[in-house]
Design a protein that fits this description.
Helix content: 55-70%
Radius of gyration: 22 Å
Strand content: under 5%
CATH topology of the largest domain: Citrate Synthase, domain 1
Number of domains: 2
CATH superfamily of the largest domain: Citrate Synthase, domain 1
CATH class of the largest domain: Mainly Alpha
Number of strands: 5
Length: 384
């Protein structure tokens, strides 16, 4: 046998790190400075002033809506929140030990079979599908959670915003204005983040001219992984395992000695503090002070201190998963729905990129470097 590496003109980059795969006007990340913009707007500005509905409109259409445009857009989302009754039965038949992300993946796929525009590939139909998927994913997340817990399903409330309604369907209680605003901020911060693994997965599927639902199912599947959206669950598990501020230093040093990943730290793009983490850290601080339950935030802040001291010089800082886990904890949300909540927000970015890319579509077809044998002799079966 002869093994050889074929000559290849384009440099190999494991995981496509640093390889541009699209030209986009949707968002931009400056990993060195720690800046994130959506359509030119700094994430800090949107987190302070915008809503999830307005931000989604911005991501899809390129500009902030005027009052009438925003009201019409909000009305469209509200009108499509409900899911068919058979979907409720479907969710009820999913085994209770199924992770909510798996339930979400399955239900979005099924909704594609019944979408009224399923055979329409026009841009208008794609936008309508994006509206329905965005509205219905929040409902599915809530229903999957309540079914898993054996709780009665709660119908969407048309008088509530997207964020407030999501919390209402999850908990059964209409959130106060402060809590509803916090959920809005969480959804905005998670709505979009450039060419991440799940966005790329959705775009690869869409580039084949497959349907919007298939593309979003692909995004959900990619987000499910613990190296992507599932990391926030692992963050809370780590913090609970540590248990006290006193245990932080020995835990982190032992983990680093064993070369174990510290969940919620480091990012493929950011080499400084993730701006989303900075925003969520302050919300986590306020929530812990308001509730009087400061233990978890104190542990998190100590972890940050130790990790930055040990690894900051290498560009390892908190990412969005780290403090989002604490915020969810303080909102009394179980860790198994952390990633589904991420998906309910990121669907805005997934659909935005699909809509943009399909305007000048080219099917993704990367290549690979062959590093195996050549000219192997075939031996007949009876002689092996």
């Amino acid at each position: 046998m002869v093994s050889r590496m074929e000559e290849f003109q384009v440099p190999f980059s494991r995981g496509l790190e640093g390889v541009p795969v699209a030209i986009t006007a949707i968002s931009h990340i400056d990993g060195k400075q720690g800046n994130l913009i959506y359509r030119g707007f700094p994430i800090e500005v949107l987190a302070q002033f915008s809503t999830f509905e307005e931000t989604t409109y911005l991501l899809w259409f390129g500009d902030l809506p005027n009052k009438d445009e925003l009201e019409n857009f909000k009305r469209d989302l509200i009108e499509h929140r409900r899911i068919p009754d058979f979907m409720k039965e479907c969710i009820g038949n999913i085994p209770r030990d199924t992770h909510p992300m798996e339930a979400l993946r399955t239900c979005v796929s099924m909704l594609g079979c019944f979408d009224p525009d399923k055979h329409d590939t026009s841009r208008g139909a794609r936008i309508r599908k994006a509206v329905r998927i965005t509205a219905q994913m929040a409902t599915i997340v809530a229903y999957a959670h309540r079914t898993r817990k054996g709780l009665e399903l709660i119908d969407p409330n048309p008088n509530l915003s997207h964020a407030a309604n999501l919390l209402y369907m999850l908990t059964g209680e209409v959130p106060d204005a402060e809590t509803a605003r916090l959920m809005d901020v969480i959804l905005i911060l998670h709505a979009e983040h450039g060419m991440n693994a799940s966005t790329f997965a959705a775009m690869v599927i869409a580039s084949t001219l497959s349907d919007m639902h298939s593309a979003i199912v692909g995004g959900i599947g990619a987000l499910r992984g613990p190296l992507h959206g599932g990391a926030n669950e692992r963050v809370l598990e780590m913090i609970e395992e540590i248990g006290s501020v006193e245990n932080v230093e020995p835990y982190i040093k032992n983990a680093l000695a064993q070369r174990r990943r510290i969940m919620g730290f480091g990012h493929r793009v950011y080499k400084t503090y993730d701006p989303r983490a900075r925003i969520l850290k302050e919300y986590a601080r306020k929530l812990s002070q308001k509730s009087g339950q400061t233990k978890w935030f104190e542990i998190a802040e100590k972890i940050e201190e130790v990790v930055i001291r040990e690894l900051g010089a290498k560009g390892v800082f908190p990412n969005v998963d780290f403090y989002s886990a604490i915020v969810y904890k303080m909102l009394d949300l179980p860790k198994e729905i952390f990633t589904p909540l991420f998906a309910a927000a990121r669907v805005a970015g997934w659909t935005a990129h699909v809509l943009e890319y399909l305007q000048n579509n080219r099917i993704f077809r990367p290549t690979s470097i062959y590093n195996g044998p050549t000219e192997v002799e075939y031996i007949p079966l009876e002689e092996r």
